Structures are given as C-alpha cells and as structure tokens.
C-alpha cells in the first residue's frame, strides 16, 4: 500500500520527514507478529498508530483489545488482564474472561504500560514469552495467541534504573520501538493538519471557516502544543463552533491556546523590549554588545520552537547564582540588557537584584569560584550556543552542584524530575 493512501486511510496525518520515517517503520512491522512499543508524549496519536498496525496485520479480522493500564486500579488490574474464577475474591460471583483471552487471535494494546504494578509485570512477561497465564483464583494454565503493542509516555529504561520496572520485561517489550514525534518537532505539519480538522468540523456542524491572519498562522506554528494532535483537534473544533464565520486573528486564537503562561505571549516567547536586541553601531568597541544582542535574539527564536523548560532553568539558575552578588559577575553589556528586559517572568533591577514573577524559588547555595567561572565563561563565549548546549550546560552544573542528586537538581532548574530524566536520556548524560 502506498504511504499516502495508508496515512489517509488510518488518520496518521503529516508529510514531514519525521512522520515519513514513522509511517515506513509501521508499514514494515505491521504484517509481522513482532512486539511493538510506541513511545511519545500524550496526544501524539499512539492509539491511532496501534489501530493502524492491527488493521494492516494478518490479525485484523480478530479483536483489537485496548487496555489503559494507568486507568485500572492496582487491586483489580490482574483480574482485568487475566480474568478470574468464581469465588476468587469478594464479589466474584461468576467466572470472567480477561483481556488477554478476549484478544485471542488478535491484538492487545497495552497503553501506559509503565503504570503496571511490579507484581503484574512478571505475569505480563510470562504471557509475552509463551502465551501462558493463570486466571485469578485458578491453578489451571490458560493459553492465548495475541500480538502485543505497548505504549508509554515515560522513559522505561530510567524506570528500570529506578527499580520501578522489570528489566527482563523491558527487553521483551523493546523488540521494536517506534518514537512518535511531538507536534512542535514537525511544525510543517501543523497547518495542513489544522486545515483537515477544520474541514471535518465545518462539514459536521454546517459551519463556515473564513481563515486566519498571517499573525494567527504564525502563532499556530510557533505555539508549543503541549497536548499535541489532541489539542490541535480540540482548538480547531472550538474555532469552527464558537467563532463561526469569523476571520481568526491572534486575539481570537489566543483564547483557545491553554498552554500560555501568566506572563509572556501565548507562543511561549519571553517578552523583551524591542531595543533589547536591536544592534547599534558604536564603533570597534561595540562588537561584544552586538554579539550579546545576537545571543538574546537567537535564543528567543529557538525558544519558540522548542523549550519552555530552558527558560525556567535559566531563570532559576541565574537568579540563584547572582541574586546576592548584584549581578556583578555578569558582563556589563549583559547586565545592561537584563536591566531593560523582562525575561520569562524574571524582572531584573540592578538596585534590588531580582524579583520573580513566579510563586516561589527554592533557597539555593551560592556557586563556588570554579562553577562561577564556568558560568561566566559560558555567557561570555563569542560563539552563540545552541539551546541544546545551554540545556546541557545547566543540567550538568546543577547535577555537579548537588553531587548527582536529581531531585535537588530538578528543583534548582525549576523542572520536574520526569523532565530532567527525559533530558538526561536525550543528551546521554549520566
């Protein structure tokens, strides 16, 4: 089957290179019985992908059973998966088939596999390896023939390291891994997917969508879409229904973008005065000022594409480093720009040091001379660092400060431990 036909048939939208690679991999594995693990953020389309794999497989005439492991209470998940016998526990008035029995001959999709309790993981391993399991309350071996597709938005390997996920089950699930990219990493797909949703809802609700301005289009592309495809679909439906026959500008669009911060624009760019990055010619001595402004400008452009997290990291880290030093360790030109700028909710005033537009900041130790020197060198480097380099530098410094304690490092950087684990895995940091 042609890739475009496949995508159209199963609703896997997008023509970016990242999506082409995903589709090619799906089409390679669909006809086999190999175990597949789908990895990606919430809303990227893991369930749609699982349905496409099943529909393309030789098992398509049999059941696809979808199980959200994170939504089943721990006390009954074993019974739900493997079934139970009459009288196995209070309330078990009849025998009952589990999901693995219902999926016999077909496919079982285990969503949020990382939320499965440890005592159930060992039983999952057995049924994955030889198709054998026991119903709750029975000593009779049951067998099933299923193809397993698992999905997670967590870092399973990190969970293995933390002891919350079995290593042998991890390797059994990791036969083929398909990573579904977040929407912000395939920006060229945003407008075409949005238009498709608009056409769908316009037909459903007998509405007319009159389009959007160039600024609104740019906002659609630059917004981070934390809810990914699910959020984009939701916004398209709201615009069709609630803004019927209206031309959409940025003001109308911003009302439906939930991921915005209390301060700053909806596209998650920090608010900086225009003159904070307008280079002025001041002769030979102005080279560093010019590079400094270029650094700020490039950082803002790259932030729009990827990182809300790095803004919080910079804010927390710079505040904890220099708030008691009068910002004197920073280059004069940087201090001048920070005095004029409002970045990510951090208002810097050279007289009062810093006041935060955040709720609270953890009390943190000052840097030693070596750490301070490294940070100043990093800020004064003539070459403009990438966002990835900035993140890696901040994460490394925070872990170094706290002797590898990830909890304290995440608090210092102002991100969750889960985000820190993801970044460590992304950059291959130990």
UniProtKB/TrEMBL annotation:
Report which superkingdom the organism of origin falls in: Bacteria
Q: Which UniProt key words apply to this protein?
A: ATP-binding, DNA-binding, Nucleotide-binding, Transcription, Transcription regulation
**Keyword Acyltransferase annotated:** no
Q: Does the keyword NADP apply?
A: no
* GO BP annotations, alphabetical order: regulation of DNA-templated transcription
Give start and end of each Sigma-54 factor interaction domain. 12-241
One MF annotation (Gene Ontology) recorded for this entry: ATP binding
Q: Which InterPro entries match?
A: AAA+_ATPase, AAA_lid_NorR, Homeodomain-like_sf, HTH_Fis, P-loop_NTPase, Sigma_54_int, Sigma_54_int_dom_ATP-bd_2, Sigma_54_int_dom_CS
What's the protein name?
Sigma-54 dependent transcriptional regulator
- Source species, please? Gracilimonas sediminicola
């Amino acid at each position: 089957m042609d890739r475009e036909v496949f995508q159209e048939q199963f609703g896997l939208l997008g023509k970016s290179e990242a999506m082409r690679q995903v589709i090619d991999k799906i089409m390679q594995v669909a006809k086999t019985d190999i175990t597949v693990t789908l990895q990606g953020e919430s809303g990227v389309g893991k369930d749609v992908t699982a349905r496409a794999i099943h529909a393309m497989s030789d098992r398509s005439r049999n059941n696809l059973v979808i199980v959200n492991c994170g939504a089943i209470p721990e006390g009954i998940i074993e019974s739900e998966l493997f079934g139970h016998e009459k009288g196995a526990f209070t309330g078990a008035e009849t025998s009952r088939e589990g999901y693995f029995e219902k999926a016999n001959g077909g496919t079982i999709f285990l969503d949020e596999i990382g939320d499965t309790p440890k005592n159930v993981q060992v039983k999952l391993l057995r049924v994955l390896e030889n198709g054998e399991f026991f119903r709750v309350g029975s000593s009779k071996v049951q067998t099933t023939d299923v193809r397993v597709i698992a999905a997670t938005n967590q870092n399973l390997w990190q969970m293995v390291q933390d002891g919350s996920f079995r290593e042998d089950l991890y390797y059994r699930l990791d036969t083929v891994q398909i990573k579904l990219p977040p929407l912000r990493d395939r920006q060229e797909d945003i407008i075409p997917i949005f238009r498709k949703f608009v056409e769908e809802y316009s037909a459903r609700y007998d509405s007319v969508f009159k389009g959007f301005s160039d600024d609104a289009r740019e906002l659609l592309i630059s917004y981070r879409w934390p809810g990914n495809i699910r959020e984009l679909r939701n916004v398209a439906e709201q615009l069709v229904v609630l803004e019927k026959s209206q031309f959409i500008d940025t003001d109308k669009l911003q009302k439906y973008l939930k991921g915005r911060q209390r301060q700053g624009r909806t596209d998650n760019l920090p608010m900086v005065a225009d003159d904070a990055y307008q280079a002025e010619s001041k002769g030979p001595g102005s080279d560093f000022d010019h590079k400094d402004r270029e650094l700020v400008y490039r950082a803002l452009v790259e932030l729009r594409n990827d990182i809300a997290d790095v803004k919080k990291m910079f804010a927390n880290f710079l505040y904890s480093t220099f708030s008691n030093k009068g910002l004197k360790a920073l280059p004069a030109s940087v201090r001048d720009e920070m005095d004029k700028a409002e970045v990510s909710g951090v208002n810097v005033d050279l007289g009062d040091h810093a006041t935060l537009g955040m709720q609270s900041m953890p009390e943190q130790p000052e840097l030693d001379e070596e750490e301070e020197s490294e940070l100043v060198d990093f800020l004064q480097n003539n070459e403009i660092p990438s966002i990835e380099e900035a993140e890696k530098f901040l994460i490394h410094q925070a872990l170094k400060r706290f002797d590898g304690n990830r909890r304290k490092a995440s608090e210092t950087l102002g991100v969750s431990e889960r985000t820190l684990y993801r970044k460590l895995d992304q950059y291959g940091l130990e």
